[in-house]
């Protein structure tokens, strides 16, 4: 059957966490990199489902949920909410030193304890941000475009004037996809880009 785009439904958190891990190494499977298979999802999926579940969309084919897009209309408000409501429990569950120093798990735990803040220069013009992940079976068929377009339409309807995202320089396919979707580079770092577009 054709991929169906629909709203996230309660109870699908685990499959979204799994997709996050299966695409967590610059778009490819990161399962072998992490000791804790939930860790990536706790940072890049869980808070979005709690803070802005109404914006969470999934792509479903005949084998089940195989992709998602998550977003928030106001990154600064989201960061403040995470500091109050999301990070404290995770900091207790994952104290610094839980995993070997400089391991992939350790790097994510350090993000939990010292989360980066979006650049004021970026969020002033592009306050919304997003994450999108698709399993290989949904890639290259237009499903990513459909998911992202639905999210962008939803954010525009909420009054968000622009949106940004971060992407690894190693994920060349994703960078090309975002450029085709109208995103341009607004900040460059050693290993990543921040890309943005108006809504």
From TrEMBL:
List the source organism.
Actinophytocola algeriensis
Record field: transmembrane: none
Report the Gene3D superfamilies cross-referenced here.
3.40.630.30
Alphabetical list of InterPro entries matching this protein: Acyl_CoA_acyltransferase (IPR016181), Glycosyl_Hydrolase_84 (IPR051822), GNAT_dom (IPR000182)
GO cellular component labels: ribosome
- Alphabetic keyword roster: Ribonucleoprotein, Ribosomal protein
Official protein name in the record? Ribosomal protein S18 acetylase RimI-like enzyme
Output the superkingdom of the source species.
Bacteria
Q: Lineage of the native species? A: Bacteria, Bacillati, Actinomycetota, Actinomycetes, Pseudonocardiales
Q: Name one GO molecular function term.
A: acyltransferase activity, transferring groups other than amino-acyl groups
List, for all copies, the residue spans of the domain called N-acetyltransferase: 65-199
